[in-house]
Amino acid sequence: MDSKPNGPGSRVPQEKNGDIIGSSPDGRSTMPGPNRAVPPAAGKSILVIDDDQTNQNIIRHFLEKNGFAVASAGDGEEGLRQARDKPPALILLDLMLPGMSGFQVLSRLKQDAALAPIPVVILSSLTQEDDMMKALTSGAADYITKPLSPVVLMTKIKLLLAGRS
Amino acid sequence: MKLYSSLVLVSFLGLLVITVGLFLTIIIRRAIVQYREREFAVRYREIEVELLKLLGEPGVDRALALADRYAKFPHVLTDVLLNYARSLWGGERAKLSAIFDRALRPRFRSDLSSRRIVRRLRAARLIGFFADQADEAVIQGLLRDPPIVRLAAANAIAQSPSTEAVPIIFRAFETDDVANAHAYKNVFFSLQLRAENGIREALRKSLELEKIEILIEIVGAIPIIALAEDVAAFAGHSDKEIRLRVAQTLGSLRLPDMLPVLLRLARDEAWEVVAQAIKSLGRLGRSEALDVLTQALFSRQWHVRYNAREGLLNMGEAGIARLEQVAGQTLDRYAADMAAMGLVDAASKGGA
Questions:
Q1: Angle between helix B196-203 and helix B209-221 axes, rounded to 10 deg
Q2: pLDDT cut 70: percent of chain A above it
């Protein structure tokens, strides 16, 4: 098993000035097809739930660079509160959070009728097949392992949002 | 009497001066530490902001300019680069390496071969992200260091190991103290399939029980299918914890060939081993295990019954039929209850 789905050897989209100008999907099921242009972000809001400040900074930087509005939370409770107050277009969720775990947050999101349709992308350093399967069968739209490739992350987010619209 | 009073006064004044001096030293020292921490935090944020600006930009020119600007703050720059290297992968990581090469590599090389453990340890933290081929000889020397430096080095080597480095890591594991053994898990996991030969050879040696447990566990975690037979050889081991790990690992490998071994472990004398073997049989999902899983619903141990229920649910209609049979009998109400709960679960998920 390759512990990093985005690991060396997989094809990744090209990037210019921080904007993704084309994609060459890495074969995951979320990719609609080869060489498909990535749609623009158009100011959609994304909620990042991650307790690691460096991760938050990096993700926020790339999301804003790609035209998304970003809200962030450092734990599950805060993340759920923000999601209910202002439902985002997509949620990026870390699994290892202080207090409530990422799996619990995911479960709460999927139990809430208003929040259940929001796609949740898991960002985690857990690379075990069991963890990935648990997250995906619990309703996660995708599972991305850390460390992150910002280019791959942005492509997946845009394609997921494009698929919904 | 007068002399005595003077002595007391002088002593009192002396003590007072010493006490005040001590307090002042503590206060000044604390102020200096706080000032340095503040400076560190400010500088860290400053570098971080600059670094974020260049992430996503083409080329490394701006990265090199940042390296030149902050080379005079090596500790702060090292911390920023380490934190970002842990979070980033791909093209952006290359920019961090360019900054490291420009601003920190000479210092890193001198730290790696320093006589001071603290400096070697600090350098060892960086190896995994920024070491290149030329550093490997020095890194391997670190494996002969005290445990804390050796483990940091082993962890680092595992991220980009040479053919020579892998046996060295295993030698370090075999000869290291048992108390340190668990720290090698991450190293072996990072090695992925490159760990196969090392694990196979280590399993054939007479190591401490905890080390054997770790090796067996890692085979399932990676997983390394080619080592299934080597793991199965421990199914009859006298130690319960080892048999437990064997049952767990064989479940992770999901090899039909291992069914007989798991069926044997499902009859183990220790209920913990039985519970794990039943769980693994459930994951395997083979019809040959139906009878054993059904029988396990009648176990006195809740965990065994629960794993049997989950296993039968994993077996589709044949498993559901067995649950219905057990739910309908009246000889053992615990087994009936467990089976009935399984059927409720199946119904709620649309499986029945």
A1: 150
A2: 73
CA nearest to A130 within chain B: B252
Would you call A162 an interface residue with chain B, using a CB distance cutoff of 8 Å?
Answer: no
What number is the ipTM of this complex? 0.73
Cα–Cα distances (Å) from B197 to B96, B167, B206, B322, in that order, read 33, 9, 16, 42
C-alpha triplet B53, B56, B57: angle, nearest 5°? 75
Write the pLDDT tens digit of every residue in B121-173: 778 777 767 777 666 667 667 766 777 777 777 777 676 555 666 787 788 78
Q: Hey, is the C-beta of B349 within 8 angstroms of any chain A C-beta?
A: no
CB pairs under 8 A between A and B: 62
Distances (CA, A) of B193 to A21, A45, B7: 35, 40, 79
Joined together, the tokens standing for residue B313 give 């649910």
The parts of chain B modelled with pLDDT lower than 50 are: 351-352
A residues 53-112 lying closer than 8 A (beta carbon) to B:
54-55, 57-58, 61-62, 65
Q: Which of the 8 DSSP states describes residue B88?
A: B
pLDDT surpasses 90 at A62? yes
Give the nearest partner residue to A147 out of B48, B52, B86, using CB atoms: B86
